[in-house]
Automatic annotation (TrEMBL):
<feature type="domain" description="ABC transmembrane type-1">
    <location>
        <begin position="90"/>
        <end position="280"/>
    </location>
</feature>
<keyword id="KW-0472">Membrane</keyword>
<feature type="transmembrane region" description="Helical">
    <location>
        <begin position="94"/>
        <end position="115"/>
    </location>
</feature>
<feature type="transmembrane region" description="Helical">
    <location>
        <begin position="201"/>
        <end position="226"/>
    </location>
</feature>
<keyword id="KW-1133">Transmembrane helix</keyword>
<comment type="similarity">
    <text>Belongs to the binding-protein-dependent transport system permease family.</text>
</comment>
<keyword id="KW-0813">Transport</keyword>
<feature type="transmembrane region" description="Helical">
    <location>
        <begin position="259"/>
        <end position="279"/>
    </location>
</feature>
<feature type="transmembrane region" description="Helical">
    <location>
        <begin position="127"/>
        <end position="152"/>
    </location>
</feature>
<feature type="transmembrane region" description="Helical">
    <location>
        <begin position="27"/>
        <end position="48"/>
    </location>
</feature>
<dbReference type="GO" id="GO:0055085">
    <property type="term" value="P:transmembrane transport"/>
</dbReference>
<dbReference type="Pfam" id="PF00528">
    <property type="entry name" value="BPD_transp_1"/>
</dbReference>
<protein>
    <submittedName>
        <fullName>Carbohydrate ABC transporter permease</fullName>
    </submittedName>
</protein>
<feature type="transmembrane region" description="Helical">
    <location>
        <begin position="158"/>
        <end position="175"/>
    </location>
</feature>
<keyword id="KW-0812">Transmembrane</keyword>
<dbReference type="InterPro" id="IPR000515">
    <property type="entry name" value="MetI-like"/>
</dbReference>
<dbReference type="InterPro" id="IPR035906">
    <property type="entry name" value="MetI-like_sf"/>
</dbReference>
C-alpha cells in the first residue's frame, strides 16, 4: 500500500491557520440575534407540545394562552404508556430505523462508488434512471409495493417495512456526489497498482474517506424511517408490531381527541430523536460540510 500512502500524503491539504482579522473572524451582533430567533422559532413548537401535555386542553383555550409547563408530566407519561403499548412501539421503531439506516448506508455507498469510480457500459444512463425515480411520488408505488409484499407473505411483519427502505435514489445520489468530489482518481489508480480488488478499493480506500457523509445519510434515513406513518399503517395489523407513529394514531379516539394525551405521546416520540441529535450533531454538521469546500 506504499503507493496509496504516497498519494494520500500528497493530496491532504495543509492545516489552514485561523485568520482572526479575516472575514470569518468578524461575526456581527445581529447574526447572533437572528440565530437566536431561529432557534426560538424552531424549538417553540416542541416546548408548547410539552406545555399542553402537562397542563391539558385548558392551555390552548385559556386567554392568554399558558406558556409554562405544568407538574403532571408523570401522569401524562403513565397515561400514554398505559393506553397503548407505547414502549414496545418505541423499540420496534428503533429496531427498524437502525436496521434500515445501517444497511442503506452500505448499499447506497456501494452504488455511489460504482457510479463514481468504476467504468462499465451504460453507467451514465443507469444513473440517470436512478435520478428519475426521485421524481415519482411515493404514493404511486404503494399498490405495486403492497402486492409484492403480499406475494412474499410479509404482510403484518417488520420485514415488510424494513426491506423496501434498504436503498434509496437520494442515498445513491448523495454518496455518488461525495465519492466523486473527495475520492481522487489518482488514489484509485495507486490502489489498483498495489493490487487492490474492487471490494478493497471501496472498503479500504473510498468508504473511510466518505465516512462523515455516510454518517449524515444514516441520520437522515433513521429520521425518515422513524417518522414514516403511511406504509407501516398499511402493512402492520398486530398491536405488538406497531411503530411509534401508529401508536400515536391509536392515542386518538374516533370522534374526539385528548389533546394532552396526543401531544404527550408526540413529545415522547420526538424525545429519542432529540437525544440522538444532541450526541451526533457535531458529526452531522461536519459530514454535511465535508466536501463543500475544495482547495
Amino acid at each position: 500500500m506504499a503507493g496509496v500512502t504516497a498519494v494520500l500524503a500528497s493530496t491532504v491539504p495543509p492545516v489552514a491557520r485561523r485568520n482572526r482579522g479575516g472575514r470569518l473572524g468578524r461575526v456581527r451582533w445581529y447574526v447572533y440575534v437572528l440565530l437566536g430567533l431561529a432557534v426560538i422559532v424552531c424549538a417553540f413548537p416542541l416546548y408548547y407540545m410539552l406545555v399542553v401535555a402537562t397542563v391539558g386542553a385548558s392551555a390552548v383555550t385559556s386567554t392568554p394562552p399558558r406558556l409554562y409547563p405544568g407538574t403532571n408530566i408523570v401522569d401524562v407519561a403513565r397515561a400514554v404508556f398505559d393506553t397503548v403499548p407505547f414502549f414496545r412501539s418505541l423499540l420496534n421503531s428503533a429496531f427498524v430505523s437502525l436496521t434500515v439506516a445501517a444497511v442503506s448506508v452500505i448499499l447506497c455507498a456501494l452504488a455511489g462508488f460504482a457510479f463514481a469510480k468504476l467504468q462499465f457500459r451504460g453507467r451514465d444512463a443507469l444513473f440517470i434512471l436512478v435520478l428519475l425515480t426521485m421524481t415519482v411520488p411515493a404514493q404511486l408505488s404503494v399498490i405495486p409495493q403492497y402486492l409484492i409484499i403480499s406475494w412474499l407473505g410479509w404482510v403484518d411483519s417488520l420485514q415488510a417495512i424494513i426491506v423496501p427502505g434498504l436503498a434509496s435514489a437520494f442515498g445513491i445520489f448523495w454518496m455518488r456526489q461525495h465519492m466523486s468530489s473527495t475520492v481522487t482518481d489518482e488514489l484509485i489508480h495507486a490502489a489498483k497498482i498495489d493490487g487492490c480488488s474492487s471490494w478493497q478499493l471501496f472498503w479500504r480506500i473510498a468508504f473511510p474517506v466518505v465516512r462523515p457523509a455516510a454518517f449524515v445519510l444514516g441520520l437522515i434515513t433513521f429520521t425518515a424511517v422513524w417518522n414514516d406513518f403511511m406504509w407501516p399503517f398499511i402493512v402492520l395489523k398486530s398491536p405488538e408490531l406497531f411503530t411509534v407513529q401508529i401508536a400515536l394514531k391509536q392515542l386518538q379516539a374516533n370522534r374526539s381527541v385528548d389533546v394532552a394525551l396526543a401531544l404527550g405521546g408526540s413529545f415522547f416520540a420526538t424525545l429519542p430523536l432529540l437525544i440522538a441529535f444532541v450526541f451526533t450533531g457535531k458529526q452531522m454538521v461536519s459530514g454535511i460540510m465535508d466536501g463543500a469546500f475544495k482547495g
